[in-house]
């Protein structure tokens, strides 16, 4: 496929970056992942706003304005045939003369890389709620840093946590920091108790998920009671339902936690209701 690298659209095989790139040496960069349906980037403005925020928080100059990013995204999607894709954007602090923790002085141009891949999950089908079995998750101590609100490419802790979950036969790790639920290794967490939906409030300890925001919006629009509040880890054990949300996995019911069934061990009614609204919204927006 075609990728974008520092101003050029090139074949993926032809793209080259320096081993002195600070993304490679130091994990000094930020990224975004944007799902594309029918050639339409989903919630593009929201993703680009989060990217601009990540760049600001790590003191990287934004190489493009919103219109510039939108043009690049649309052109890359078009050059890859449109359809259903996962669109990946990464910006690093560029290529320094030496490997140094301090920022290059004078500053160098950031490295901008964009690529597409097939969407890892199928486009949500109208009968998704009927077909979804749910996934297993395990709880793990949140060993990450204090700025998980930044979408940083330094993901080593997230990778170790996700792999620990996979090794345990689970799809995701639900992370606990000082007795409170933060999020998944690559997803946000929701809990349902007595018909009410709860998710941890935004803080430096979790990423403000674009899907999280959409779930909250859809709940509000359709009269499902939803609250952002601190969740104690112990509440997971008596939850009726637990959900994970992310751009690449939609809203997924967790039906086993730490080897025990969640609720009755099958996807819950509140999830089915929300999933129907979610699918309807996507279909409406992307002409699916
Ligand atoms: N939290 C983390 C740590 C993530 O990596 C992700 C994305 O994969 C999310 C939450 C969900 O964010 P979004 O809904 O924007 O994909």
Automatic annotation (TrEMBL):
Pfam hit, one: Aminotran_4
Q: Give the UniProt keywords, A-Z.
A: Aminotransferase, Pyridoxal phosphate, Transferase
Cofactor(s) recorded for this entry are:
pyridoxal 5'-phosphate
The cross-references to InterPro entries, in alphabetical order and at most eight, read: Aminotrans_IV, Aminotrans_IV_CS, Aminotransferase-like, BCAT-like_C, BCAT-like_N, Class-IV_PLP-Dep_Aminotrnsfr
Question: Do you know which CDD domains this protein is assigned to?
Answer: D-AAT_like (cd01558)
Q: Name one GO molecular function term.
A: transaminase activity
Domain of life per record: Bacteria
Concerning its family, UniProt says: Belongs to the class-IV pyridoxal-phosphate-dependent aminotransferase family.
PANTHER family given for it? AMINO-ACID AMINOTRANSFERASE, D-ALANINE AMINOTRANSFERASE
Q: What is this protein called?
A: D-amino acid aminotransferase
- Recorded source organism is Alloalcanivorax gelatiniphagus
């Amino acid at each position: 496929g075609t990728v974008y690298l520092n101003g050029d659209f090139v074949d993926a095989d032809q793209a080259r970056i320096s081993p002195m790139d600070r993304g490679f040496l130091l994990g000094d960069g930020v990224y975004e992942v944007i799902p594309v349906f029918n050639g339409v980037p989903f919630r593009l403005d929201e993703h680009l706003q989060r990217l601009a925020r990540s760049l600001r928080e790590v003191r990287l100059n934004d190489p493009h304005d919103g219109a510039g990013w939108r043009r690049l995204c649309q052109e890359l999607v078009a050059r890859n045939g449109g359809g259903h894709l996962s669109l990946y954007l990464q910006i690093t602090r560029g290529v320094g003369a030496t490997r140094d923790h301090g920022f290059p002085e004078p500053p160098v141009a950031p490295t901008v890389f964009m690529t597409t891949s097939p969407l890892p999950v199928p486009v949500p089908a109208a009968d998704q709620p009927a077909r979804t079995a749910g996934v297993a998750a395990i709880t793990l101590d949140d060993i990450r840093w204090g700025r998980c609100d930044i979408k940083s490419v330094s993901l080593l802790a997230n990778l170790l946590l996700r792999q620990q979950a996979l090794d345990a036969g689970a799809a995701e790790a639900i992370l606990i920091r000082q007795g409170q639920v933060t999020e998944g290794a690559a997803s946000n967490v929701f809990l349902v108790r007595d018909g009410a939906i709860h998710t941890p409030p935004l803080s430096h300890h979790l990423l403000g998920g674009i899907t999280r925001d959409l779930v909250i919006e859809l709940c509000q629009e359709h009269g499902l009671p939803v609250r952002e509040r601190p969740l104690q880890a112990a509440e997971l054990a008596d939850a009726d339902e637990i959900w994970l949300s992310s751009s690449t996995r939609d809203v997924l019911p967790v039906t086993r936690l730490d080897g025990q069934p969640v609720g009755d061990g099958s996807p819950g009614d509140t999830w089915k209701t929300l999933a129907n609204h979610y699918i309807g919204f996507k279909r409406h927006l992307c002409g699916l």
